[in-house]
Specification:
- The chain has 223 residues and is mainly beta.
- 9% of the residues lie in helices and 70% in strands.
- The strands form two sheets. Strands 1, 2, 3, 4, 5, 6, 7, 8, 9, 10 and 13 form an eleven-stranded antiparallel β-sheet that branches. It has a two-stranded antiparallel sheet with strand order 11-12.
- The two termini are 42 Å apart.
- The relative contact order is 0.20.
Length: 223
């Protein structure tokens, strides 16, 4: 490596460091819809349809390199799906609430657009199933038949527009769950004295999926 190359490299690093230091941490709030789905592999289950649920949380952006940010988004997010059984023709609606923390790298694309990618960590807070049967609604707590931890991979993109002292953003993202959240056991769907058992066998596998549309607003610290 020549001296000139070394000098150019040092100059580039100095300019990059200066650009990073000139960027500011931003904070904000976000909310939107999760078009949730599940991959549910179990005997007796025909398919799973999408359900529309919601999420709300906060946003923190930390500059790491030339307009690229580490964006962390702790939020409450619902997941689930509409489970269609092979027999009886009845559907079971599953809704699970998570404390979810996406840890995303936010890459700029031009002046207004960006791409997001990274892992998403989730911890189950609540889980319920609901089924209509013979004119009655049966409900069950399903926390005992699901694992608490959920790991997913998220990719997406969006648009940011300067508004007043901050930025208004609109994102679309897809999260692909990579951990099996099912655990064997029985969820008892109960209505008064009647009970319909829903048995999760040991070979069952369940993975969360979901496409999210999130709207939010961020402001830089020290503006």
């Amino acid at each position: 490596m020549t001296k000139r190359t070394v000098k150019l490299l040092i100059l580039y690093l100095l300019l990059s460091s200066s650009a990073v230091f000139s960027q500011k941490i931003y904070v904000g709030a976000t909310g939107g819809f999760n078009f949730a789905d599940m991959e549910f592999k179990m005997s007796g289950v025909k398919s799973v349809d999408m359900v529309t649920v919601y999420g709300v949380g906060v946003v923190v952006g930390i500059p790491i390199f030339l307009n690229t940010y580490l964006q962390i988004e702790p939020k409450y997010l619902q997941k689930g799906g509409l489970i269609k059984l092979k027999e009886n023709g009845a559907d079971i609606k599953s809704e699970t609430g998570y404390l979810e923390i996406p840890i995303l790298i936010r890459f700029p694309v031009g002046e207004k657009f960006h791409i997001l990618a990274g892992p998403t960590l989730g911890y189950m807070l609540s889980s319920d199933m609901e089924r209509e049967f013979n004119g009655h609604t049966f409900r069950a707590n399903t926390e005992k038949v699901l694992n608490n931890f959920d790991l997913g991979l998220t990719i997406g993109g969006g648009l940011s527009i300067p508004v007043l002292i901050g930025d208004l953003f609109l994102d679309g993202r897809y999260t692909y769950g990579v951990t099996d959240i099912s655990d064997d056991g029985t969820a008892n769907l109960q209505f008064r004295e009647s009970i319909i058992p829903f048995v999760i066998d040991k070979d069952a596998e369940t993975f969360n999926r979901g496409f999210k549309v999130m709207l939010g607003f961020t402001i830089p610290l020290g503006f």
